[in-house]
Each structure stands twice: as C-alpha cells, then as structure tokens.
Design brief:
The protein is an alpha/beta fold. Helices cover 49% and strands 20% of the residues. The protein has a domain of 179 residues: 3-Layer(aba) Sandwich (Rossmann fold), CATH 3.40.50.150. Helix 6 links the parallel strand 4 and strand 5. It holds the Pfam family Methyltransf_25.
Length: 279
C-alpha cells in the first residue's frame, strides 16, 4: 500500500518540491536565528522550502560526520525521488544504492542520476526494506530520511545486520512520538507507524546495533510547516485551473500541515537524528 501511495504522489511531489534533479520529501532545517520568508508566490515559497530541505541534509551531514561515515558504500533506504541519494554521492563521493518500494520512482531516480553524471555512483533497488537483501555488500552505512516510520523496525534492523560491515552506521532522521495524540496526527495523514526513540533503540540493540548519537531538532524544523501551509495557500489562491478534486486534496493537505505544526509546538512530536553503530 505504501509503494502505491507514493507512486500515486509522484507528480504532486515534483510540483511542490521540484524541479529536479535533487528533489526531497522531508522537512526543512531552519537555524534558530532564521525565520522563513513571509508572503510570496508559490514558486518563491517552493524555492525557500527546497533551500531548507537541503539545509536539513547539510545539518545531518555535520552531526553524522558524513565525510568519514557516508563517503563509502551507502544504502539510502526509502529514497523517495532520490534527492538524498544524489546529495550523498555529489557532496561526499558515496556509492549509493537507492532503495524504494515504489516502482515508478526507480526510473525517475535513475534519470536524475544520469542528469547529474552519477550513473556509476547511484543505482536503484526496488524492494521492501523489511526484506532487504543486497549482493554487493557489505555496506559502510545505511541512511533513512523520514522513511523508517514505514518499516517494521525489528525486521529492518535485523536485515541491516546482514548487509552492513562491523562498525557501520545506521543514520536515521525521523519524526518520533512523545504522546498518543502526536502519533495520530502524523500517522493519519502519512500512513506511517511512528514510534518512540526507545522503541528504535530496543529494536536496534536486539539486532546488534548500539544507539551512539541522538540530536533533537524539533524547534529548528517547526517553520517548515508554516512554509508548507503557505505554499498550499498560494496555490489555492493563485491557480484558477485546479479541478474540484485537486482543490479538495489541497485543502485537506493544508489542514494536515497546520495540525502537524501545532503538534510540533505542543511537544507531541519530536524531530530527531539518531545514529546507531553495528557492534
């Protein structure tokens, strides 16, 4: 169901977060001293969103020491349209296997990789993360950017234990729950199964991984929801050619964005960066 959900969303993701080649489907990072721009048309807001989504990956690279840990053979699990895969390959020279369970996304990622001259650096693998098998390991690291909420975490870590070398890192950027209401708000819109940090740590330890780093960036990602809602409002106000079905979808999206922002503020959801090491 998740694969079909994202196949159906491809054109919508490109419209909101494109154009390529580096298209991201995750929140943005806003340094504490930086406020998102107010006003502007949909294209202006989209440009700011993209800038801060790249900022999130650059922040992740800093705290995960990507120059050393994410410059070898990397699994990007739940790669979306490949923005992160291209980022790790272009910025740090990684050889990336971009894993997706949405078949429609694989040729899109491959096309963007060719556009960037990364044919030999980024390859796609269509499979379920819970059944992950690779024949060209062992890998030096696995990365999951707002994708692990869709996985069966115990099974995922168990599969990673077979394809990562000893000492390898599993780097996770994810939305974690701190109370039931937060879980409902996140899960109902994104069809995901959020968990607590403790649940991640327990699943990882059972598979031979240790949680070694945890960074909370909830406050620095809150402005994303303001910008995401602003983009949706700008499209609703500025595009007279929208069909009634599309207008209804965007209004639902707007309400969901506002609900996420409120839950972020209230402390029901936590945006965190975790790093695990294989023992």
């Amino acid at each position: 169901m998740v694969g079909q959900y994202y196949d159906d969303k491809t054109a919508k993701l490109v419209r909101k977060y494109g154009p390529g080649p580096r298209i991201h489907y995750h929140v943005g990072y806003y340094p504490s001293s930086e406020a998102p721009p107010s006003g502007g048309d949909a294209d202006t807001i989209r440009g700011s969103i993209r800038l801060h989504q790249e900022g999130l990956l650059r922040y992740a690279a800093k705290i995960w020491d990507a120059e050393h840990r994410l410059s070898g053979k990397v699994l990007d699990v739940g790669c979306g349209l490949g923005g992160g895969s291209l980022f790790w390959a272009q910025e740090f020279g990684a050889e990336v296997t971009a894993v997706t369970n949405a078949p429609e996304h694989a040729p899109v990622v491959e096309g963007f990789a060719r556009e960037c001259g990364l044919d030999g650096k980024v390859r796609t693998l269509v499979c379920d993360a819970n059944s992950l098998t690779v024949d060209d390991g062992p890998y030096d690291a696995a990365v999951a950017i707002e994708s692990s909420g869709y996985f069966n975490r115990p099974r995922w870590f168990e599969r990673l234990s077979h394809v990562l070398r000893p000492g390898a890192s599993v780097c996770v950027e994810e939305v974690f729950i701190t109370r039931p209401r937060g879980a409902d708000v996140w899960a109902e819109y994104f069809y995901t199964k959020p968990a607590t940090v403790r649940e991640y740590a327990d699943a990882a330890e059972a598979a031979g991984f240790e949680l070694v780093d945890e960074v909370d960036a909830t406050a620095q990602t809150l402005p994303f929801w303001e910008e995401s809602a602003a983009w949706t409002k700008a499209v609703l106000d500025g595009d007279s050619g929208l069909s009634p079905v599309e207008r209804r979808r965007l209004r639902i999206s707007l309400l969901a964005n506002q609900a996420q922002g409120l839950e972020w503020q209230a402390g029901g959801l936590q945006l965190g960066f975790l790093r695990f090491e294989k023992k």
